[in-house]
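Final report, Chapter 2: Outcomes

The project's central promise was a pipeline that accepts a single protein chain and returns its three-dimensional structure in a standardized token representation, suitable for archiving and comparison. That pipeline is now operational. To close this chapter, we reproduce one record exactly as it appears in the project archive, with the input sequence first and the structure output second.
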Amino acid sequence: MTDMVRSQQHGQHGLPADLLDRVTSAEPNVGEAERVLSVVAGAGMVAWGVRHGGVAGMVAGVAGAALAVRGVTGYCPVYASIGANGDERHFAQEHGWSTAASTVQRVTINKPRSEIYRFWRNFQNLPRFMENIERIDVHSNDRSHWVVKAPAGSRVEWDAIVTEDRPDERIAWESGENADVRNAGWVEFQEAPGGTEVRALIAYEPPGGELGRMLAKLWEREPSQQAHMDLHRLKQVLETGEARRDTGLH
């Protein structure tokens, strides 16, 4: 009876039935080419496991079956756990991107919101607290050109276009055509105890698609860490006149 219960609780490849239910009903998050590779590799691992038997064969068989299911269903639980969340998927769809990495960060600054807005709205001030920016060339009231440091000593460039400007309240922007990295965001200024709460959304399309987005997250190169530090440097600049160039901000 115990063996019968176990066989009913597991699929034919030894995978828990509830896991099979989840992956077969979930929205696909694996690309077509990767699905084919998963099926082929999974089938090879299952075949190896059957030939060799023993503990190693059993482990290879279960792992191969899981990989094959990943390919057939197009769903990867690992991608789901560290992949794009619902807001990021929606953002990517709205902007026509393959995927998106985004973050919303905030900080309270002991200054009037009108002063903070004016400081931010002069985009040539941004390199004073955004450490990855090499320079910003302002071409007009709503268009500027950004040159930004990238990994391995490289740099990326784009034109930024202001899409919304409400004095003392909100500034929104997005990258123009032919951007090296497509991006968008907004910053809002709201009165709060102790001064003004500055809340910013930063989003970009990671090079390399979903894999690039996940690698950036695993290597802490996603926008959340950088935006967090940049906003705290903004607080230092406005409250003390200068920002520390360290990574110990909280």
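Archive annotation: The longest strand covers residues 155-166.
This record, like all others produced under the grant, will remain available to the consortium after the project formally closes.
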